[in-house]
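Q: Structure tokens for this one, please.
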Amino acid sequence: MIKHDHTGTSPSETWTAAEGTRGLRTALGRYATGVTVVTTQGSSGPLGMTANSFTSVSLDPPLILWCPARASTRFADFMAADHYAVHVLSSHQLALARRFSASGNDFAGLDLGETPEGLPALPLCVARFDCRAEARHDGGDHAILVGRVLRAETRTGDPLLFWNGRYGDFLHHG
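A: Here is the predicted structure, written as tokens:
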């Protein structure tokens, strides 16, 4: 159903569950998110996964969550992980987002650090959250992984954003 918004200038569309998932995906794409790469030690070595389903849950205790897709070949390793590191990518790290969307074990050529738990630490991210797995919940075609933040590291810079199926960053207006 197409309606005009309150200004009368832009048509809107309504999605219902009976219509399949495409319309819902389009509507969710209207919400801008940051872009993260989550790393862990998998069954075959270091592993990474790009995720934009990341959010804070609680300050006390310090909890975050992210949601890996069940269809991912990396799903089982992240579900089994006792620890993981969530890296908030900077606006200059689009190549990392694409790299870990395509392949989870391609750390070649990266100037990696290591967390105290032995996890791969990606360089130059605007934030990193080192976490211990706190809870795992069913989330339909994803799982909801809650992590207890053990430490967080930040640096200056703009985050990489994902909106409407595209990557980008902020436009600065004085």
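A few notes: The chain has two domains: 1-30, 33-164. The mean pLDDT is 87.
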